[in-house]
Design brief:
alpha/beta, about 40% helix
Length: about 325
């Protein structure tokens, strides 16, 4: 496969939209989300899937998506729908598609199979080989055990996604409320290991980590609480199922203005202090704070997220005088 340079794009809010519902698809084009994925899997009834493929092709080719990331979630490889989902959508609208989301990924071979199919379609219809990305969704115990290999399976992979509902079922978790702590688990966070496992695999391969949905769509405070958990760890975004969840996702998965300004100030101050003009020092003071190379690395993370989200700095670095 041809090498393709992938810049990590902001995915604070990833809107799930049923691929069989033209009204919802049209509405999604006006929402302030970073990504929209048109769903051919769980949100699409079996008898509606064939028609939904063509609805999605039309929406991708003729919709006004602005700078939103355009993704289609196909059915998983254990079904008989997957190959036709990919062929129909990519042959019909591949030029207007950013990534394919593959659900219920259990091993690296499933990612490689999708990569191969995408490559064959791209070559056949004259698309740039390798441009269309892959988003891999971890939804069961086997997928989590193999997440390192999954993350490294293809240069197309852009994100690793936690699918909490199916995952909870796969491990027999004692809860029917997706994302909330199971009854009787009173020490810590039952999802911490899962989230960290996904995050480590993503970061080791320079990928983004995305948290899955919170199904109580009218409970915005509950969404904030659950999203805050993965945002604090370093996740890059979360699925949203309702417009009422969008503002919270966009806020939680980007730096605060104060943190963004501080990060940019650290980068400017470090650049200056390591320059000839600044004395070629390895460490310096920014106000009352000592900064060094480790500070620069942490600031780069915050700065990159803020810039990807379109944030603008409000402070300007001034080199110390004398």
């Amino acid at each position: 496969m041809a090498a393709t340079s992938r810049s990590l794009r902001s995915r604070r809010s990833c809107m799930a939209v049923p691929g069989s519902n033209p009204r919802f698809i049209e509405k999604a084009q006006g929402l302030p989300v970073d990504q929209v994925f048109l769903d051919l899997e769980d949100a699409c009834a079996p008898l509606a899937k064939e028609g939904a493929r063509h609805t999605i092709v039309d929406a991708l080719n003729n919709g006004d998506w602005g700078d939103r990331i355009r993704v289609v979630r196909v059915n998983d490889w254990t079904t008989h729908w997957t190959y036709r989902d990919v062929v129909t959508v990519v042959e019909g609208a591949g030029a207007n598609l950013d990534a394919i989301m593959l659900p219920k990924v259990q091993d690296a071979g499933q990612v490689k199979a999708l990569d191969l199919l995408l490559t064959q379609i791209e070559k056949t219809v004259g698309l740039e080989v390798g441009r269309i990305g892959i988003e891999a969704q971890i939804e069961n115990a086997r997928g989590l055990v193999n997440v390192d290999e999954i993350a490294a399976a293809s240069p197309r992979v852009e994100t690793i996604i936690f699918g909490p509902a199916d995952f909870m079922a796969s491990i027999n978790m004692k809860s029917l409320v997706v994302g909330e702590q199971p009854p009787g688990y009173d020490t810590g966070d039952a999802y911490h290991y899962i989230l960290m496992r996904i995050l480590m695999a993503a970061r080791a391969n320079d990928l983004q980590a995305i948290d899955g949905p919170y199904l109580q769509i009218k409970d915005v405070e509950g969404f904030r609480r659950v999203a805050g958990r993965s945002a604090a760890l370093g996740f890059d975004g979360k699925w949203v199922l309702h417009p009422g969840q969008i503002d919270a996702a966009n806020e939680l998965y980007q730096p605060t203005q104060a943190d963004y300004d501080h990060a940019e100030m650290i980068l400017d101050a470090y650049d200056w202090c390591t320059s000839a003009e600044g004395g070629m020092k390895g460490a310096a003071m920014l106000g009352d704070e000592m900064i060094d190379e480790a500070s620069r690395k942490m600031a780069l993370v915050i700065s990159a997220k803020g810039r990807a989200a379109g944030m603008r700095r409000t402070l300007k670095f001034e080199p110390p005088q004398g």
